[in-house]
Design a protein that fits this description.
Order of helices and strands: EHEEHEEHEHEEEHHEHEEEHEHEE
Number of strands: 16
Number of domains: 2
Radius of gyration: 21 Å
Oligomer: single chain
Structural class: alpha/beta
Largest sheet: 7 strands, mixed
Strand order of the largest sheet: 12-11-10-13-14-16-15
Strand content: 25-35%
Number of helices: 9
């Protein structure tokens, strides 16, 4: 149902630009509940789509109830809140409960509420820990009772992961700890999880063309998932060796190939338009229905609308249809764009 009060997760640096993109909708924006989390009151009820359209929001959850976190600091208080919110969950027909913390030291309050909800509903509660991992996961279109716990308030909402815009509660991905040669590997994991949410009918691609592959973090991730990768980058530093990876030490602007691919991955430095033109030049090697995962590096946040429009125009001319654009948690001053070749 349309809602006039929303809990949003938007990066602090991107917040002013998200707010500018929807200023006509927003009546009031409250101080941060946790890092990047704010409650906004709109002038009229809306669905989530207008709030996600700019690509800068990582999570949009309607607010159906609020309580001071102080009420959760005892078992009796948590039991009282859990009883009320469990009744609302039953009324809505929600069988999945998600609790995520927007402040690390809200842990005890979140755990207390989770215990009481489990008793009230006789169901497992999906509680997101400090590193973003979840004990239980729901399907993308299952209605979830979604609860955010901060220092001062806990907020209740009902949404699906697909409607909220992220496969992770609150848009908080796991903190990946491994021997990745760069942060790019983690960014790709988040991108592929978002891809599975955005295009659930499409199997994960197995033949990838990667532009801007150095130092090999994304390449290693794809190979580890069983994909074959043609990796293109002019850089001459050491890269991970893998039998499923073929490296080409050349400029993407001059690279040619007769191979066919299920997906193109582009994380090139340089201007977004030049990277998009390299993708467009090689689009003929992509199968119809093939996917594009494309990082748009932004000179400034305020450039996003112009950059995105220009890149979409370049890609549309070679047959791509946009699936989504999002500032993911592992993105920096950049957004990830998903598209499909039609």
């Amino acid at each position: 149902m349309p809602c006039a009060t929303w809990l949003l997760h938007v990066d602090r640096q991107a917040w002013p630009h998200w707010l500018a993109s929807v200023h006509a909708l927003v009546l009031r924006a409250e101080p941060e509940l946790g890092e990047g989390f704010r409650v906004v009151t709109l002038r009229a009820p809306v669905e989530a789509l207008p709030l996600m359209a700019s690509g800068l929001a990582r999570w949009a959850q309607p607010v159906a109830g609020r309580t001071p976190t102080a009420a959760l600091r005892s078992e009796d208080g948590a039991r009282e809140v859990a009883a009320l919110w469990a009744d609302l969950a039953r009324e809505r027909g929600s069988k999945h409960i998600s609790i995520y913390r927007v402040r690390k030291h809200a842990a005890k309050a979140a755990e207390r509420l989770a215990r009481q909800l489990e008793l009230a509903l006789a169901t497992a509660v999906m509680i997101t820990t400090a590193d973003g991992s979840s004990v239980v996961r729901a399907n993308a279109d299952d209605l979830v009772t979604s609860i955010a716990v901060g220092d001062t308030e806990a907020l209740l909402g009902f949404t699906t992961f697909r409607a909220a815009g992220s496969p992770y509660p609150g848009g908080l991905p796991p903190v990946f700890v491994d021997d990745a040669p760069s942060r790019a590997r983690w960014k790709l994991r988040e991108s592929l999880d978002w891809l599975a949410l955005t295009a659930p009918d499409h199997p994960e691609p197995r033949r990838w063309l990667e532009l801007g592959a150095y130092p090999g973090g994304m390449t290693a991730e794809l190979a580890g998932r069983g994909a074959h990768v043609v990796a293109v980058d002019l850089a001459t530093g050491a890269v991970p060796a893998h039998p499923a990876v073929t490296w080409h030490r050349t400029d993407a602007s001059t690279f040619t190939t007769d191979a066919r691919f299920d997906a193109i991955l582009c994380d090139m430095n340089g201007t977004p338009s030049s990277a998009a033109r390299n993708v467009a030049r090689l689009a003929s090697s992509l199968e119809v229905g093939g996917l594009l995962v494309h990082t748009l590096k932004l000179p400034h946040w305020e450039d996003l609308p112009t950059v995105r429009a220009k890149v979409e125009e370049i890609l549309k001319d070679v047959g791509f249809t946009l699936l989504g654009c999002r500032h993911l948690a592992y993105n920096r001053q950049e957004v990830t764009l998903l598209a499909r070749k039609t």
